[in-house]
């Protein structure tokens, strides 16, 4: 079996580390902790209903989220879809008692209160329910990448539903997308992806 690009560079590594605080924190206490964490590169902090999770990011995690972002942005450009990349900018709302950073995020068409599409790469399982964070802000679509598989959730107005095709990008072949993300060569992935898009 051909190794993926991530496996070639960092073979058999799964070393994102998570720590969930054993006690609930107020929003003010969280903000103080967030300020401290901001001075420590390589750490990510999430908050929901008083519970705080701190996570380190492995090189494999960063590689996957970069490849996913690259192919998504390539698709937007090839299809002339106006988008505004928002990256991992912090999304937070004190009234909703939530704060988190997606791995990648995009406004489609125009800027709004929150991005339309968010991407989350999960290398290590467990911890705070990731989808619950997005639900607080009703972000239209969330793509999870876990165990070399992508799962797409679309906001229905009452909750998230797992879907087989993106409602935001209905012409995107998600099987093709997943295959290209896992290819051992980024150059080959780009060529195959663009060729398939242009032949539609």
TrEMBL record:
The keyword Transcription regulation does not apply. Residues 27-174 form the Putative restriction endonuclease domain. GO terms for molecular function: endonuclease activity. Gene3D superfamilies: tt1808, chain A (3.90.1570.10). Keywords: Endonuclease, Hydrolase, Nuclease. The keyword Cytoplasm does not apply. PANTHER family: SLR0445 PROTEIN (PTHR47152:SF4), SLR2084 PROTEIN-RELATED (PTHR47152). This is Uma2 family endonuclease. It comes from Planktothricoides sp. SpSt-374.
């Amino acid at each position: 079996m051909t190794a993926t690009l991530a496996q070639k560079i960092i073979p058999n590594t799964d070393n994102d580390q998570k720590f969930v605080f054993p006690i609930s924190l107020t929003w003010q206490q969280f903000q103080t902790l967030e300020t401290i964490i901001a001075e420590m590169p390589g750490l990510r902090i999430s908050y929901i209903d008083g519970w705080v999770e701190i996570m380190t990011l492995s090189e494999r995690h960063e590689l996957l989220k970069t490849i996913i972002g690259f192919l998504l942005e390539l698709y937007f450009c090839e299809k002339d879809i106006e988008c505004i990349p928002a990256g991992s900018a912090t999304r937070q709302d004190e009234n909703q008692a939530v704060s988190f950073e997606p791995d990648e995020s995009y406004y489609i068409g125009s800027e709004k209160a929150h991005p339309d599409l968010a991407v989350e790469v999960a290398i290590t399982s467990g911890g705070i329910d990731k989808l619950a964070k997005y639900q607080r802000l009703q972000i239209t679509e969330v793509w999870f990448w876990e165990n070399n598989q992508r799962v797409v959730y679309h906001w229905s107005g009452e909750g998230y539903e797992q879907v087989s095709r993106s409602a935001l990008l209905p012409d995107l072949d998600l099987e093709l997308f997943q295959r290209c993300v896992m290819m051992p060569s980024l150059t080959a992935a780009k060529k195959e992806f663009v060729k398939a898009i242009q032949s539609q």
